[in-house]
Design brief:
- The chain is of the alpha/beta class.
- It is built from 9 helices and 8 strands.
- The chain has a 5-stranded parallel beta sheet with strand order 2-6-1-7-8. It has a 3-stranded antiparallel beta sheet with strand order 3-4-5, with no helix packed on it.
- Strand 4 and strand 5 form a beta hairpin.
- It binds cytidine-5'-diphosphate (CDP).
- Cytidine-5'-diphosphate binds next to helix 2, helix 4 and helix 8.
Length: 220
């Protein structure tokens, strides 16, 4: 039997990453930040001069991505890029290239390789719909665009980046639009997903809801 898996999908800045990490910690499981893989591909393309429309070139790059996860630290070709991949320009490029089917296909094996005992919490856009359709629990985590923009603003300022709330809200709405409308692996709740709207929930309350839903699924 394969290891238990919790898939957490949702729009940009919905708090998926923090919630997924906290759930993984509470259960003692591994954690996959699938968005980081799209960000890594985008960064590698930007640095290597690969055009963001060059689907075959990007897929080749993704298939041989020289990535290493060392705890919280992420390395690309031996270089620490943990901070660099969080830049908004990299996030926007990631969202653009994530619409390319060949690139998505090239990242499938890498993502599925993270599923190991005692379990995995994976966050992204298509964890429950495409990558792990047989997940033990699927969660769709959302929140209003305004509250997500405010959260992203706070996060960027805390990390020392400069940010503008109005620009962030506009970029976030564009990204939602692209993620929901693309033909391959569009952002939508997976079949059977538990939908959690965190507009009025803090992190602790959201984590508690996910853990509660998992315990209910595991021992109904
Ligand atoms: O920080 P944010 O939630 O915007 O993005 P992220 O989770 O770091 O992912 C960066 C981009 O990769 C997103 O804007 C998505 O377009 C894309 N992505 C995807 O298509 N599928 C995933 N499983 C994860 C991310």
């Amino acid at each position: 039997m394969s290891a238990p898996l919790i898939a957490i999908d949702g729009p940009t800045a919905s708090g998926k990453g923090t919630v997924a990490q906290r759930v993984a910690q509470a259960l003692g499981w591994g954690y996959l930040d699938s968005g980081a893989l799209y960000r890594l591909c985008a960064l590698a393309a930007l640095r290597g001069g690969v055009d963001l429309d060059d689907e075959a070139g990007l897929a080749a790059l993704a298939a041989a991505l020289p990535v290493r996860f060392a705890g919280e630290r992420i390395e690309l070709g031996g270089q620490d890029v943990t901070g660099a991949i969080r830049d908004e320009a990299v996030g926007n490029a990631a969202s653009r290239i994530a619409a390319l089917p060949a690139l998505r296909a090239a990242l499938l094996g890498l993502q599925r390789g993270f599923r190991r005992p005692p379990g995995l919490v994976a966050d992204g856009r298509d964890m429950g719909t495409v990558v792990f359709p047989e997940a033990t629990l699927k969660v769709f985590l959302t929140a209003s665009a305004e509250s997500r923009a405010k959260r992203r603003y706070k996060q960027l300022i805390e990390k020392g980046f400069s940010a503008n709330l109005a620009d962030l809200l506009r970029d976030l709405q564009q990204r939602d639009e692209r993620d929901t409308r693309r033909s391959v692996a569009p952002l939508k709740p997976a079949e059977g997903a538990v939908v959690i709207d965190s507009t009025h929930l803090d992190i602790d309350q959201t984590v508690a809801q996910v853990l509660g839903a998992y315990r209910h699924r595991a021992r109904p």
